[in-house]
Structures are given as C-alpha cells and as structure tokens.
Amino acid sequence: GGWLGRYLRTRPAESRGALACVAVGKALPECLLGAPAVTVMQSLEEFAIAARTPAFGTQLARLYAMQHGQLGAAARDTFEALVRIEAMRTTTYRPDNGATYGRDEFANGLSQLARLIKADVGLEAASIDLAGWDSHFAQQGQVEGLAAKLAEGLAAFRRDLGTRMATTTVVVMTEFGRTVEENSAFGTDHGRGSAMFVLGGGVRGGRVHGDWKGLSPDVLERRGVLEGYGDLPVLNNYRNVLAPILTRHGPGTGAPELADVFPGFDVKPMGIFG
Predict the structure, then answer these.
(1) What is the pLDDT of residue 265?
(2) 175 pLDDT exceeds 90?
(3) 226: left (phi > 0), else alpha (psi -120 to 50), else beta?
(4) How many helices (H) and strands (E) does the chain have?
(5) What is the DSSP letter of 33?
(6) Cα separation of 227 and 112, whole Å?
(7) Sequence-distant (≥ 6) Cβ neighbours of residue 57 within 8 angstroms
(8) Which residue blocks in the chain are alpha helix, DSSP H?
(9) Close Cβ partners of 193 (under 8 Å, ≥ 6 residues apart)
(10) How many C-beta neighbours within 10 Å does residue 20 have?
(11) pLDDT attached to residue 59
C-alpha cells in the first residue's frame, strides 16, 4: 500500500469511519492504497446514493442493516456519511474570515475539504491533486499559472480554516522532480530537483529545512547528453519530512509504528516543528 494508507492502518479502529479519509478526484491516489477506508469523490454534491429515489436508499440501508462484521460496519458508516453530507448540501457554504476561493477545480476541492473539516465529520486525512506540472517545453508560461493556483488555493484554505489550522497540517509534494537546466524546448526534463511545502500548526515556517548545496555548476551532477542536463544530488528523503507530521497527528505513534509506515527505511525525522 501507499505510505498514507499504511499510516491509517496504525490508527485506532474507531477512527475509521467513511469520512475519516477522503480523496478529492476521480481515482484513488497511490499514497492511499491499502487504507482501511477511503471515500473518493469530486464534490459533496456528487456523493450520494439514490438521490432521485429516496425510497431505494432507505431500502438499501435496511438491507445492509442485517449484515454483521466488517461489511455491516462499513455500510453503517457509509449511510451515516450520506446523511451528514446531505445535511451539508442543504445549506449554502460561506468561507470564514473573508476567504475567497477561485473558480478552478483545485480551489473547489480545497473548499470541499475545509467544509468537511469544519463540519467535524471525523476527517483524519485527505488527498487532492493539482496536475499539469510535466513541463518538458514552454515551462515558464505553464508553471506560472499552476503556481498561482497552488498559492491562491492554499492561502484561501488557510484563511478559511482560521484557528483550526493549529490542528491541521498541509503537505505539498510531487512524485517527480525536474532537472535544473533548461532543455532546447524551453522546458525541463525529469530529474531530482523538487520541493516540499509544509503549512500548519507548530510548523517552523519561513525557512528552508534540510541539506541544501545551492545551484552552482560544481554542485550539479551531469548525467550525459542523452539523459538530461545538470541535476541536483539527492540530499533529503521525503520520508524524513513526513515522519514528524505523522507523529504529531498520531498520538502514541513512535519508532515501531513509523517503521511499519516506511518499511526498510532508517527514519530520521526532520525538525520542521517548533
């Protein structure tokens, strides 16, 4: 399974409701593979069963009420989630603290997550994607628009949550990086250059954490003309960034549990929290 799916398996069984973990999108992301329960949805409006035929939904709930064991428990959690989401759908959502979300899909997804957090439905983990960063050509025009969506979406989300950010951590990460030097098509190819952003309560912000050697030519590694241009050396492992976050949000999570989340890796948690 994925790292977040493995982490969620270490959590108490009572925290595994249908809305304990949500993936905003059309498919289950790899990080959540193996999670005890994940709800995948594009919006709260689309999360429904028999929306136009309520009687069918009632009959379905009665049918599953006769089930026992894991199937019965999962069904009860799901129908409870449906009831709570239906109650949310009947009210107009107004972001708090003057927050204004954009009209793009990413901003809408963040708004949905903020709404779930503030509704206290038991959400413990969530995943949302912002695609389009594979910039092999014309990178500047492509990345500028995406970076603006990312920044404006996160700013609105942070403002909307207000004091709830004290118990929330946002991690921005990617599954691939880029080379440092531009290619002949005014883009960059797959490489190691990347960044992770961490936002939330207790974060020692406003600084760069981890080892960093700069971008001077003598630091870059050459992989040959056919394999790309100057690339960064590998200095920091993403697991060491995620480890202190999981520890912070999982009371009692220590070295043995982290070893289950990141098997075969010697975890050295980065000091990103004060």
Answers:
(1) 94
(2) no
(3) alpha
(4) 7, 7
(5) T
(6) 41
(7) 49, 50, 82
(8) 3-9, 54-65, 69-89, 105-118, 139-161, 238-249, 255-261
(9) 177, 178, 179, 180, 231, 232
(10) 23
(11) 83
Span 107-147, pLDDT tens digits: 999 999 999 999 888 899 999 999 999 889 988 888 999 99
Please tell me the pTM assigned to this model.
0.86
What residues are paired with 169 via a beta bridge? 200
Please give the Cα distance from 208 to 264 (Å, whole number).
27
62-110: pLDDT as tens digits: 888 888 887 877 777 777 777 777 777 778 889 999 999 999 999 999 9
Interior CA angle at 157 toward 151 and 160, to 5°? Answer: 140
Reading phi first (left if > 0) and then psi (alpha if -120 to 50, else beta), residue 9 is in: alpha
Q: What residues have CB less than 8 Å from 16, skipping those under 6 apart? A: 8, 36, 37, 77
SS3 128: strand
* 202, 273 contact by CB (below 8 A): yes
Residue appearing with tokens 């991690």? 171
Q: What single letter denotes the amino acid at residue 50?
A: A
Closest to 35 (Cα-Cα) out of 54, 53, 51, 15: 15
pLDDT for 254 beyond 60: no
| 95: its two tokens | 């972001």
Q: What pLDDT digit, counting tens, does each position of 194-214 carry?
A: 999 999 999 999 999 999 999
Report whether pLDDT(37) > 70.
yes
* Torsion on CA atoms 198, 203, 205, 207, rounded to nearest 10: -80
Environment class of 183 (CB within 10 Å of its CB; exposed 0-12, middle 13-18, buried 19+)? middle
